[in-house]
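Box 3.1 A note on notation
Throughout this textbook, protein chains are presented in two layers. The first layer is the amino acid sequence; the second is a token string describing backbone geometry. Keep the layers aligned when reading.
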Amino acid sequence: MDVRSNICVIGNGAIGKTAALGFAQMGLSVTLLAPQAASSELNPQEETWDARVYALNHVARGLLDSVKAWHAMDAARIAPVDGMVVRGDDAQRPGRLDFDAYGARTDALAWIVEDRNLNRALDTALRFAPNLRIVNGKAVALRAGPDCASVQLDNGGMLSAELLVGADGGQSWVRNQCDIGIDYRSYGHQAIVSNFECDKPHHGVAYQWFTSAEGIVALLPLPGQRVSLVWSAPEALAQTLLNGSLSQLAERLNALTGHQLGSLRPLQPELVRAFPLSLIRPHAITASRVALVGDAAHVVHPLAGQGMNLGFGDVDALLKIVAEREQHRDCGDDRVLSRYARARKEDIFLMQLATDGLERLFAADFEPLRLARNIGLNLVNKLPVIKRTLIAQALGKRPWKHTD
């Protein structure tokens, strides 16, 4: 099997699927290489709440809407974030930073979406996408030539395209094949994720607590009186939390959050997952006829909930740059790829700087520093200009542009 197309996307996650849909709806021929067939079949646990959720911003929503995926999701399982409260770790002078949609002059700060809900909608859209072919197999070799990039499959087949999009995650095979080096740092933390019922209504507010000893705890609103937990916990604590029951985890959360939402109780059936946390900075996000998107292009700490949004920002920029290329340039032209790299450089750098800097700042258990960072939160909370800048960055509303 030899398949040639304008675009070849490698990766079966939400970022890769969205990129494939976007290019196909532009009228380009697209091949999506996935390890298994995309499926929108009902999950046997469909009525449960997925432990993996994303806080999608306005750029992500607009992109998903443009590829006909946003309204294909189950709206009853999406929760808008109308406000956010960030709290520091000084018992005597606790820091606090508040954001709200009304003050930001927007309908919502973000939307909490389950991984399963998102991928089911994308799988449905893929079934009806024009010019798109899904190939199931494993890539074993990649070669970039003057006119195309070629991927050899383990079954002997070959995929060729003007542009190869690597959307295959933090351990990206595409990135490795292109000999793109990385700067890597393990945070020595795991993200513990689970879902809980709460006694008090959350009113669409997301809460986040920074602690030096126990990591970073976030409670994200789900529909009804439910919340999703994302706890960035030091390795030893993470193992303790995972080895105990969810009821014990809930008790610990109740104490740490001061019963902000009343008593928390594990949703039934109980479900908890854990993900190791690290920082990955690739030395480049492009190579000859290759563009990296999503975690293949950057892995950041989830404390700001912006990792997935950064990936959707990659796809949004790449689609626009390819669409606006000069008529004599093909999709993988060096100039096109250079524009993409420049367009994403600032956003990626700023998000890496912010998330890594905050993690380092609040991980330090040093009393003068603890006092300073909590005073800093309170100070920022009283400065509308800075707050508006932070909100705009989180919403993804900075204008996209590129120059040669």
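The mean pLDDT is 88. Residues 214 and 401 are 40 Å apart (CA to CA).
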